Records
---
Amino acid sequence: MENQLRRMENNLVISGTGLLAFTAWNIIRALLIVYTYREYVMELIRQEGDWDGEDMPLPLMLGIFAIIFLVVMLPYLYVAMCSRAEGLRKKSRKVYIVLALIMLIPQAATAIYSVMDIFLSDETFDAVVTGAIDITVLCVLVETVTTAIRVKKYRKEIGIELPKKPRKKPGKEKAR
């Protein structure tokens, strides 16, 4: 049972690393898209809104895009870091499992859309690559959730407890 627990903990580390790689890839890809299609994005902004001004400076556009993108990618980073910490027996949290379960829904929808896009898109190669990445991320999320639940169950059976996030800072007691 100890060996099986260790294998599952290794799976958590590997899936957390995969989610980190996915996040890094998405950040690089998004920055390249913004840089490459800057004029096209500005044209879309002009068509959709009442933008009469000149082009937005590239650093400002990258900054706005980075903030929006970080809000979307922070949950992936959190789940990745927590699953790695759990697999390395550093900390044990349950919140990341719930967050990963919630993230499964939009990721599944994205994967389904990507698969459908393969058959509908003119650029088949790009659609296949995007579909493969989306399906891989979906599989990694499913693996993370199922393994994390099993690890917690096995640890409970064996009697292994990991430190949890402290609720209060150590050393500070209430004044009486």
---
Amino acid sequence: MTIEQTVEIPASHRLTIDVPRDIPTGRTILAFTPAPVGEDIGMDGECPLDHTPNAETAAAIREGRAMMRGEIPANRYHTIEEMLADLKK
């Protein structure tokens, strides 16, 4: 199992990592790889809005593109009420 998250390294170079509960306890390997600007979210070239998306937005873009490629299942709703209930969670 691999968990990937893009983070900003602060000037202090200190990070606090919260690991999802479904990850088993025990030994693990952490790998740090600098993310190239623009490529960390799979963008072709620079953002047309002339800014760098934050980590949450970048993760949403990656998730949406993975859904379009069929790598992960997309959420499907039969009614607007189902969608709104899911959004409120």
